[in-house]
Write a structure and sequence with these properties.
The structure is a homotrimer of 503-residue chains. By secondary structure, chain A is an alpha/beta fold. The first copy, chain A, is built from eleven helices and 25 strands. Chain A folds into two domains: 124 residues, Immunoglobulin-like (Sandwich), CATH 2.60.40.1180; 290 residues, Glycosidases (TIM Barrel, Alpha-Beta Barrel). At the A-B interface, loops of A face helix 3 and helix 5 of B.
Chain lengths: 503, 503, 503
């Protein structure tokens, strides 16, 4: 007969910090892909559309998530994109074959519209330049268009398009996944390093205040990882501020314990990239440290089979519309723990993506908007996970799965919000049958008591939310409580939890 | 005193096949060069011009040849060509310095006109993209322009130019002779491999139904042959369907026996390219086989000295206007044997070129059209050489020449046309003085008899045809005949022959 | 107590020649940089401006210098320059962010205006193409625009811009300082070699009469010198006629004897480049010799600190406005000796630059024009240093300085002008305290006497000229004289001298 409880121990100390958390680790991503833009954030015919065509119901959920930064316009799409197609009078914008996703792009949304939407959503924009089919010239012109005040050809062009003030985008991706053989205009590490270096140089001459993201590997599974990082950073080090990481997590084999352990992959990936950055730092005798932008991460596999059957050359077809299960949400919670644990080096991260396309927010064209299961851990971590990431001591029982050994049942991250004097413990119980009891020594937080314990749990790992029915949603009836200097965390079987404490 | 006869033996068996013959091995080539286009296929002022300006007298001869595919628009010319110059209203088309041949190109014929001409000629088009001065972007735009039905910028541009239906060009050359130091924007093998791979990738995203030809060496004499093939195919293998071969044959030293043996060069070249393709196939553990497109071949040397004196910057000057001799025609016959012998791997070939420029068809501006000597072997092989290439056993006396050893006097190829139940023996006698008697065992073709024996012979190896006088032309009075299961072939000294047999 | 005199010996013989002097070693440079163009040669609002806006007071001084060739439009600026921006109706020309110098370029002067100015100044133009952000296509179009008579798109475009006759620019730089990490679109040696070779090939197809300058190192201090020269010339050898050298000389440490010896650096640099050229010549078994174009040289360091504080994005700000001292002029004299000593291989050289920007000629906007100290040695050498450079035997006392050993106090170059039957001895005395007496055996110039001895001397090494006051200027009261076959040169302490002799 199975034990009903397993036990773990933690120590949380205010002085054992990982880092101040950069809020941009709660970023997201809108690519011109499927229904992310058209039918997602933008649907002029929708009853909820504002005067610019943006769905206000979608905007409300984005604002609820407090997304600090959104990557745009791609993704793979950017590698064959001409930014000029998406600016100026809408009736003059060309309709293009979009080669990355093999759809029709009519360019009714472009740089300026997205800047406007981001403004409404209260978020910053992480722009990307095309280093697939283009290079220095297109990049310097776009940057002049978006960031130069006026008095020059491209800045005046922007003004003539109705945007008197520069958008002042501060963060720019030097292309997207240039190591990927699927990428239009893909590059070898040497080719990318040279092109990205020269383009970055010209961009920082146009606007030295920007920050640049050098393309890292498209996933840790790439055969060129991590040599790609070493070779490319050797070129781009002088001008790069960040290196990107992308990874998607799958459960094709329907092996939940193994799936829930995949955040260990993310952890290992991050550590390897940090090591590679610092190796190049040493090699270059540099005083500058490159930080990490984990600017594509999520669960992605549900829609793949359907997408492979999709007819090409449709406008905004339903591509990559993963319907997320409860177990996906539990893993997403663990992935967020992992980002927080590395918040000393991971300064940006983007859940890919935001609406409809492998996204926490789903819409029906002309219809409803709703929250997928993964919305919830993203929401709570983004809203309450601000301040200082602490470095807890954790002792947990462990298990082995197909791909992983010594997987702790307890996965956790801890944040101290000095401003609110609030301690927040995010915790996942990976055990599929037993409740996890955690005795957490919070000696340095004298007098703190549990003010809320939010639990995301479900008897069915495959439960999903739909437009009609919310089967997966959190409750705040968690039973954790304090007893003197100890927090007694009660984490139901296979659950994600947030326990907030204050004096 | 010389013997009057020499003897050879052959066995032809229905079951010993080389391959089904791809009709496209009888392709040709029209480049924007000299008077191939202007004054060749197109001459609006000519009395024979149709409403589009195409010479109908030329068209008739092209149709007579049953040319299945014509390469266009280059050749060297394509490496500095902007396809946009050749579309849209003719009065708006720019006049350019054509750098490959140093002429003036006024762009009155372009992609659409050529598609129209090809349609009238009943031939397909083998298009080429510019990988000299351009890359992915120009290629994907052109392909969208020619092959996408409509609803996008470039497909709608084509429709606005009066071509509602897409041309649906199926075969595309990834640049031309990019290994040649004379090529504008030439490439190293590594550079070409990378660019061709990335361009091919984008093109197959636009239209996955197309077939692509990866550039092979400009000739087997190039110092980079065959390493060029190995290096470039290592890059392009995934997207390439064919590799190109180009070779021109000369008789500068006026050594006819040596000249007539030059088809052995072609044979050796083809074998080496096959080996190289299959080496890369093994190296890549690929299941795909790359076939060969011998898309430039002919005799070319008569006009070289004159061309070197040509004044630059003329419109359609008489460049590369080789006047072909009888011996040239005999070699062309052997070159066609060689292509047929390799028809299991050579799936396309283009006699370079079709009209005026090293061509079987010549014209006078405003005047006549006529057939050069080489027209005849090309005509008969193209028209009657359809079906299955057989693999005959041949025993022939041999000779040595300056560059070759063991040259068989008898050079032959055999085709069985199942549809017509017709056996066709193409045969060359390389002996300059003696008749060649061939005893050919045709045991598997019971009851077949000679229905026609066409002979191309002439006492003067240097005899040529002109507008005024046809000195070289075939007759069908050959004396070959069957006797039970044996074909007694009688091949006059230095002659090319076609012997057709039916029940 | 210091000796008042030191003694040196020379022998000058008509038959011991270095070379016929190419007058283009007295070239200069106008870059779109600071006030070189706007406020320098061009200032339509100035009272001295002619109908085209060119300052005639500036033109007068340029003509006085007899500058044979002027490099244009850059310099670093050319590496992100679109030549099309600077042609056509002035009101349609775009205003650009100029990235090399971070200024605003409104393109009111461009190729045609400069050609017109050069014509007025009686000088040729050494054009440069952009190999930073552009390549073959922009180069061939520009060359067609400037040099093709008409009847093609770009030549007719020039004619439509009001320039019926081609400019026929004969000398073209294949980019500028492409080895420099500061260069927009900088290149590795391999990248540059390939791009320059392919671009040169296309350019010589457009106009075979042009001469091309392959980019050498930005200075002999570059870590890639001289491997850059070896690698790039290995590519460009076939089409290059010259290789460029750039070097600026500084006196940051205020060590005059060391500073005055810096012409030895130039000498060593030239020798190393000659060796590298000839190594590649041998490697390529070539019969062609590459000559040298020392197309940027001067003293430059006075303005650096101020320039680093300059606000970006100004129109024609006062950048690189070195105010030259007397000692700078003395070194400039020695640099000119060095060029003359190598006139067998140095066929072009450009004092960088001509007006306002590290220049011999200074202006006030709306105000005066005046001669800097360095104007004088440049003027006399340019005007009188034409003919045949002789190779004198020199015996001089020497000194050691911080960076140099065995520095001869006497630095000299000798020119024989056959046409005028005039012998000109240019001579520098590097000694800061003592007069230098030179006994010069001129046995082959029987009956020659001193007709002028010009001296540039000053008690204050730091004396400068300003708009208001000319503190440094030459006088012709030098005391040199002949005695039979001997010229007794009297060179005052720390002076530059020109001694002219005729029969």
């Amino acid at each position: 007969m199975a034990k009903e409880f397993i036990n773990a121990k933690m120590i949380v100390d205010k002085d054992f910090k990982v880092s101040e958390i950069d809020p941009r680790i709660y970023g997201s991503f809108i690519e011109h892909l499927g229904r992310a833009v058209y039918g997602g954030i933008f649907e002029p015919e929708h009853p909820e559309a504002d005067e610019s065509g943006f769905r206000q119901d979608v905007l409300e959920l984005v604002k609820e998530l407090q997304v600090p930064i959104v990557r745009y316009p791609g993704g793979n799409m950017v590698s064959a994109y001409n930014w000029e197609d998406g600016v100026g009078p809408k009736e003059d914008r060309p309709t293009r074959l979009e080669l990355a996703w093999r759809t029709i792009e009519n360019n009714q949304v472009g740089t300026n519209e997205f800047a406007e939407w981001a403004n409404k959503a209260g978020t910053d924009v992480m722009m990307a330049i095309n280093l697939g089919t283009r290079g220095i010239d297109a990049a310097r012109n776009l940057l002049e268009y978006t960031n130069h005040p006026g008095g020059t050809y491209y800045s005046d062009l922007r003004r003539s398009h109705g945007y008197e003030q520069p958008h002042n985008f501060k963060t720019w991706c030097l292309g997207n996944e240039m190591d990927g053989p699927w990428q239009v205009g893909g590059k070898t590490a040497e080719e990318y390093g040279r092109l990205a270096y020269e383009t970055a140089k010209a961009m920082k001459l146009v606007d030295p205040s920007i920050e640049l993201v050098s393309c890292g590997s498209s996933s840790s599974d790439m055969p060129t990882f991590p040599q790609w990082e070493a070779t490319t950073l050797d070129h781009t080090y002088e001008f790069a501020d960040y290196v990107s990481l992308h990874q998607y997590y799958t459960n094709y084999e329907d092996d939940t314990p193994n799936f829930l352990a995949r955040s260990m992959e993310m952890d290992h990936f991050i550590k390897t990239v940090i090591s590679t950055c610092d190796y190049i730092k040493a090699k270059k005798r540099s005083k500058k440290t490159i930080n990490l932008s984990f600017d594509e991460w999520n669960v992605w596999f549900h829609s793949t089979a359907d997408d492979n059957k999709m007819e090409p050359w449709q406008i905004a077809p339903p591509q990559l519309e993963d319907v997320y299960t409860f177990e996906d949400a539990v893993l997403v919670g663990s992935l967020l723990h992992t980002l927080l644990k590395h918040s000393d080096r991971v300064k940006m991260a983007c859940m890919a993506q935001l609406v409809n396309v492998i996204a926490p927010i789903m819409t029906d064209n002309g219809g409803k908007v709703w929250k997928q299961t993964i919305f919830y851990p993203y929401y709570y971590t983004s809203v309450y996970g601000r301040g200082i990431a602490l470095d807890p001591v954790v002792e947990s029982p462990k298990y082995d799965s197909k791909d992983f050994t010594d997987v702790p049942y307890l996965d956790t991250s801890v944040v101290y919000n000095e401003e609110k004097d609030e301690l927040v413990v995010f915790a996942t119980n990976r055990h599929m049958e037993n409740t996890l009891k955690v005795d957490c020594d919070i000696r340095s937080f004298e007098g703190f008591r549990v003010i809320e314990h939010v639990v995301l749990e479900n008897d069915d790992p495959k439960a999903v939310n739909t437009a009609e029915q919310t089967n997966v949603a959190p409750h705040n009836k968690g039973e954790s409580h304090t007893d003197g200097g100890t927090l007694h965390g009660i984490l139901p079987k296979m659950s994600w939890n947030m326990i907030r404490l204050r004096k």
